[in-house]
Amino acid sequence: MRQFPDGFLWGASTAGHQVEGNNRNSDLWLLEQLPVTLFKEPSGLACNSYEMWEDDLDLAQSIGLNTYRFSVEWARVEPERGRYSQEALDHYAAIVRGCRSRGLEPVVTYNHFVAPLWFTAGGGWLSPDSSVLFASYCTVVTRALGDGISWAMTMNEPNIRNILDHAGLPEFLHGLLVRMLQCAEDELGVERFRGVQFFLPEDAEAMRDALAVGHRAARAAIKAVAPHIKVGLGLAMMDDVAVGEAPALARKRRDCYDTWLELAKEDDFIGVQNYSRALFGPDGLLPVPAGAPRNQGGEETYAPSLANCVRYAHAQTGVPVFITEHGLSTADDRRRVEFIVASLAHLHDVIESGLPVIGYCHWSLLDNFEWVAGYEPEFGLVAVDEISFERTPKPSAGVYGAIARSNGLSHIGEER
């Protein structure tokens, strides 16, 4: 038995727009409905979790977890600028209480990619007052939830678009992105429509800088209301590996990680969110090695990747690491089981070496709406029927739950 530290947080993650459904006042809801769109399908009712959130908490508890990560939807809390919905605030406060009553530590993400339509139509993060608007929202949410939470993330993966750009967007997708944003601008009669995931290459530097200011402002707002809350952000991280000389790897780290790792030095923790690795050679990104396991998106899955990212994040920041997302999109749940066990074995080695790791939240509790890919990717520990919304735990939920209950690994597997 390899034991994890006492008090280790074992959780599963969700995100509001991806599971709740009917997030009609949001910017992404508009983009999903446009006649020209990158989205394979609209989110619709998603997993109907706005209505079935108690079922989801019951599932997390029955699996054996002690932590549940979810996001508050800004578009529900502030559907119009300056008008806050008490119903939405009460809803999310009920989720926090529901977590506590089930022995689940609530981990709250204040912004998981999606913003109110009014915010993005008014300039979004590129607007001069974006950080003030976000901080005001964070203040209101913290007043409603703060007494019940100890862990908060201001933002989810503010660097994700930079990582996708470094991977190289096909030209046809870039063209479709341009047309989708133009379609949104025409629909709303606005000059510019840009979101965290959807902006043009020339916006990248300004978007990064604005999000960084937004993170600082949000952290200050949360701490001002509830100083006890530990605050960080969730950073998308690939296990980037140099094969010989690899100048492109250094460029990727500069463009995708450096700003956020520097910011995290001021935070209480750094959230690591890892799914795959990328190999770099003298001429840039290398293809996935022949025969290497891949996820449904075609990326290489490599069990040591999580541990490698934890080492890198801690070395760069010096703050404790919280694994806020990690998982595998696959229709073969046996692969998910193997990947979880092998990845946690490598993570245990990191912890044994003395690195401070707070906990591990698997992505995701449910098969859900995976942005432009729609409902095809299967990340969940639990399957969801698209018509009845019936939840069916997969074998991986049982294996992961046994690990969480015992706070350790009794059978160590390694991906060769």
Annotation, overall tally of beta strands: 15
**SS element count, helices:** 14
SSE pattern, N- to C-terminal: EEHHHEHHEHHEHHHEEHEEEHEHEEEHE
- Note the beta-strand portion: 15-25%
Strand order of the largest sheet: 2-3-4-5-6-8-11-12
Radius of gyration computed on alpha carbons: 20 Å
Mean pLDDT: 97
Low-confidence stretches: 412-416
Category by helix and strand content: alpha/beta
- Biggest sheet record: 8 strands, parallel, barrel
Give the N-terminus to C-terminus distance in angstroms: 21 Å
- Which percent bin holds the helix content? 40-55%
**Structural shape:** globular
Task: Give me a quick take on this structure.
By secondary structure, the protein is of the alpha/beta class.
Question: Layout of SSEs?
Answer:
Layout lengths: L1 E2 L5 E5 L2 H4 L7 H7 L15 H15 L3 E5 L2 H4 L8 H16 L3 E5 L7 H5 L8 H16 L5 E6 L3 H8 L3 H18 L15 H22 L4 E7 L2 E4 L4 H18 L5 E5 L2 E5 L2 E2 L19 H13 L3 E6 L6 H20 L4 E7 L18 E3 L6 E3 L1 H12 L1 E2 L7
Parallel strand pairs: 2-3, 2-12, 3-4, 4-5, 5-6, 6-8, 7-9, 8-11, 11-12
Antiparallel strand pairs: 1-15, 9-10, 13-14
Helix pairs in contact: 7-10, 12-13, 13-14
Write a structural description.
The protein has helices at residues 16-19, 27-33, 49-63, 74-77, 86-101, 117-121, 130-145, 160-167, 171-188, 204-225, 247-264, 305-317, 333-352, 395-406; strands spanning 2-3, 9-13, 67-71, 105-109, 151-156, 230-236, 239-242, 270-274, 277-281, 284-285, 321-326, 357-363, 382-384, 391-393, 408-409. It is α/β, with parallel strands linked by helices and 416 residues long. The chain has an eight-stranded parallel β-barrel, surrounded by four helices. A three-stranded mixed β-sheet has the order 7-9-10. Strands 1-15 form a two-stranded antiparallel ribbon. Helix 7 (130-145) runs parallel beside helix 10. The longest helix is centred in the middle third of the chain and has 22 residues, at 204-225. The chain starts with a strand and ends in a 7-residue tail after the last strand. Residues 412-416 have low confidence and may be disordered.
